[in-house]
Design goal:
Elements: H1 2-34, H2 36-41, H3 45-54, H4 63-79, H5 87-117, E1 124-126, E2 132-134, H6 139-142, H7 145-160, H8 163-176, H9 181-203, H10 210-219, E3 230-232, H11 237-247, H12 254-277, E4 286-295, E5 299-308, H13 311-323
Antiparallel strand pairs: 1-2, 1-3, 4-5
Helix pairs in contact: 1-3, 1-4, 1-9, 3-12, 5-8, 7-9, 8-9, 9-11, 10-11
Length: 324
């Protein structure tokens, strides 16, 4: 049982890694054609593919067929594991890594909150359940009123769209899949695409303030800090260049933006379904069937027995009961 769970977990990571590679290749063309929101929605495909691999596949016709499918799916994965590592040892290593990753998250969050209390962090959105935005102590000195209004609109857009909760889920995925480097790469670029989508939201009604918004972003990089749980203006040269360059692009029309969002969301859902359909078949589920049996040859009692039927047998019984 533990071996099957580990094999399914590794298989889910492999498919998620493949999905991440595909999204990394598509995100820039999709952003240019359909806008930042559609590029951000592309990342939905990775968690859907991962979760789909953990859901049992369709029922096999028999126990033997399910066993053969499981062996075909897990055999190559098990051969890649050193023979001296048991499933229990692998689980222990994975749990140790998860614990260490959670420790780094807690340490980073505590350090950021300490900087925020000292007035040396922000602008940022902090928290998951009840998010709030924080600003540095010299916020009013660094930014004038139009710039402060843009920053408040940016942080408000993060909160209204549930980005703190999404980023918490991204951080949890990094902790669970700490051994998968592509998950950490995906987390970085997903957050960057989130910022680009947020920029587009803020600028949708302020197209004449693009230059001011770019200047505000430059100022906001003065006090960079890492924020695991929340939303922070990414402080690094490359993302900043990307965000400013994106402001120079012509805005995508509402019709094309909505069509692109629906298309990318449906594509992600379809990819998740394809991942589930590719799962090895699961054993036939037990079914409860009412029957009548005798006790001591004289008394009749009704009872319920549990038997395992193949999908075709269940269909035959359903058709027979319908005819009766």
């Amino acid at each position: 049982m533990l071996t099957d769970l580990l094999a399914g977990f590794v298989r889910a990571n492999l498919l998620a890694a493949l999905t991440i590679v595909i999204v990394l290749a598509l995100r820039v063309p999709v952003r240019r054609l359909l806008g930042p929101h559609s590029a951000y929605l592309l990342w939905l495909a990775a968690p859907l593919a991962f979760v789909s691999c953990l859901i049992p596949g369709a029922e096999a016709e028999s126990e033997a067929a399910a066993l053969a499918a499981a062996q075909a799916a897990t055999g190559p994965l098990l051969k890649a594991v050193p023979s001296n590592l048991s499933p229990s040892a692998l689980t222990g290593i994975w749990l140790a890594g998860v614990g260490l990753a959670v420790g780094f998250v807690v340490f980073g969050q505590i350090r950021f909150l300490a900087r925020a209390r000292a007035g040396r962090a922000g602008p940022a959105v902090v928290g998951v359940i009840c998010p709030r935005y924080v600003t540095p102590a010299n916020f009013a000195e660094i930014f004038d009123e139009p710039e402060r209004a843009l920053i408040r609109a940016h942080e408000r857009a993060h909160i209204d769209r549930g980005h703190p909760k999404i980023n918490a889920a991204i951080t949890a995925a990094q902790a669970i899949c700490w051994f998968n480097p592509l998950v950490h790469i995906a987390a970085y670029y997903a957050r960057l695409d989130q910022e680009l989508a947020c920029d587009a939201t803020v600028m949708s009604g302020r197209s004449r303030q693009r230059r001011l918004y770019a200047q505000t972003m430059l100022k906001a990089q003065i006090a960079p800090a890492t924020l695991p749980l929340g939303c922070h203006w990414i402080a690094a040269p490359h993302p900043l260049e990307t965000r400013i360059a994106n402001l120079k692009q012509p805005a995508v029309g509402d019709i094309r933006r909505l069509a692109g969002a629906w298309a990318t969301a449906l594509l992600a859902i379809g990819w998740g379904y394809a991942a589930w359909a590719a799962q090895p078949a699961s054993p036939p589920r037990p079914h409860f069937v009412q029957t009548i049996f005798t006790e001591s040859g004289t008394h009749l009692r009704s009872g319920v027995v549990m038997i395992r039927l193949s999908p075709s047998q269940v269909a035959d019984m359903t058709r027979a009961s319908t005819r009766d």
